[in-house]
């Protein structure tokens, strides 16, 4: 589905020709990437949920104001490419109204971000919509021989926008890297959970709730995609569906167990299709929840579908029961490296090495994150894929 986006910027023939010449970038499993370079660790901030929603993001946005303002212009261009001119204009025309329809406290938080950044509320809203419809990722859960679970992910962003032929980088991906932050969410002086996100995005993309569960999400492509749900929200006033940003916040703040989180993520009506990757604290608690907007399918750890093994789960951006397309096969190298290492080596170091293997890591990769639920551990590092490196 990634070449669909390519059609928006290049001719289909040229795009597929390029893909066909680069169809086999796998050069072997990375074995020495771990431990990550400490200088690439992302900065940490606290989000105090006891503060008024308008004030929760003040310090973070103050520090990241310049980068956020620079990025928003590129977000507008990319969103236009993804949605098309006609849909984009409808969304832009309704953004101010749309922002007022968002549930509390998210609307108020965006108002605060707008105030501190100096960006119009409509553009802060657009910035958050951007993540609702345009993320690419690889998520992996592994279980060691004692039943201990480890969860890792790459987050890739900025496909087919602003390729720099001199530096061999994607412009939006490079602009996003300074925006990656680690957040500690607190209430009444206690840590509720930790997450990795981009400054200014009020939702949750990657997170751990100590002794409860770990979480990541991957984009899922569908004809009934996020833009359809967005148009229904704006034009049909269908506000019964949940924005992915908001359901993930609710799960992290209120779910008190793996099973509760799994049920909520499976049964809630969504604005956009998505893959939720969920890991628990007990032996066997790992699942990929494939979501349509109204329906779902769950593949649990040990289910042995094409994207998993008896002790691991791998999700890129394609359904578990189908083979990934040749032009974007990150799954096969990940499977090869995991099977080659064996369950006896299941660990954070194995996850980091697999996530550092090309093309699992590629020019779109902005960060790699690692999680361990029993320790409540979360770490994230910016990634820079030196050549030879797959563009996506």
What does this structure look like?
The protein is α+β, with helices and mostly antiparallel strands and 392 residues long. Helix content is 36%, strand content 22%. The chain has twelve helices and 15 strands. A hairpin with a 4-residue loop joins strand 14 and strand 15 (377-382). The two termini are 12 Å apart.
Keywords:
22% strand; disordered N terminus; 15 strands; alpha+beta; 392 residues; 12 helices; 5-stranded antiparallel beta sheet; 8-stranded mixed beta sheet
Put the structure in a nutshell.
This protein is α+β, with helices and mostly antiparallel strands. It is 36% helix and 22% strand. The protein contains twelve helices and 15 strands.
